[in-house]
């Protein structure tokens, strides 16, 4: 049985301030929690699961504290509209300073504010083998519950760094920088790359002028219809599929 103090503690982790203070985040659902346990069980501090889920996954739970709870208790601590069998409190992953771009492709996100978009972009990056994303400080928090859920486990494999983009991009010498822009070069005419920076901008405003000026090449996805723009995550997926 969960005591009131524990329930309140878990509920507070829905807020960025408390997640930062505790150095943890929440993950929910059988698929996501199982993937986190398989990737780094030591980082999963505590699991709260209904009886059948705990019994089915006993072999994965040796390195973490397990609490068997009722469906009603899970509903009280869940941040999902429809709770799904298990919730885990996970230690936030260590993040080093952005590394050199030499020999790899790094995705840069300028003011991506929608948590669902950020989580989906992390998942897309993982699909295409991009292991590092650099975000502007005003982008969504990577440990927001909607971000975590949208990554479907890719948060384990893709590192995120939050930094001043103008300063960081300015320090990258002799590196190709591609910026998604409506007035850019058709991506279907660009050869695949093995090194470089790809910038995706804000959902409604695009890339800020200061960041856009640092690009060596502006690129665009050619439109055949009359839609005004593409969702940021969709655009990231299309661009990576053409350039990588």
Structure description:
The protein folds into 2 domains: 4-91, 60s Ribosomal Protein L30, Chain: A; 105-243, SPOUT methyltransferase, trefoil knot domain (Alpha/beta knot, 3-Layer(aba) Sandwich). It has helices at 4-12, 16-22, 30-40, 51-56, 71-77, 115-127, 145-151, 165-170, 209-212, 232-243, and strands spanning 24-28, 44-49, 65-68, 86-91, 105-109, 132-135, 159-162, 177-186, 196-200, 217-220. The protein is α/β, with parallel strands linked by helices and 244 residues long. Helices cover 34% and strands 22% of the residues. The strands form 2 sheets. A 6-stranded parallel beta sheet has the order 7-6-5-9-8-10, covered by helices on one side.
What is the compact description of this entry?
The chain has 244 residues and is of the alpha/beta class.
Present the secondary structure layout.
Blueprint: H1 4-12, H2 16-22, E1 24-28, H3 30-40, E2 44-49, H4 51-56, E3 65-68, H5 71-77, E4 86-91, E5 105-109, H6 115-127, E6 132-135, H7 145-151, E7 159-162, H8 165-170, E8 177-186, E9 196-200, H9 209-212, E10 217-220, H10 232-243
Parallel strand pairs: 2-3, 5-6, 5-9, 6-7, 8-9, 8-10
Antiparallel strand pairs: 1-4, 2-4
Helix pairs in contact: 6-7, 6-10
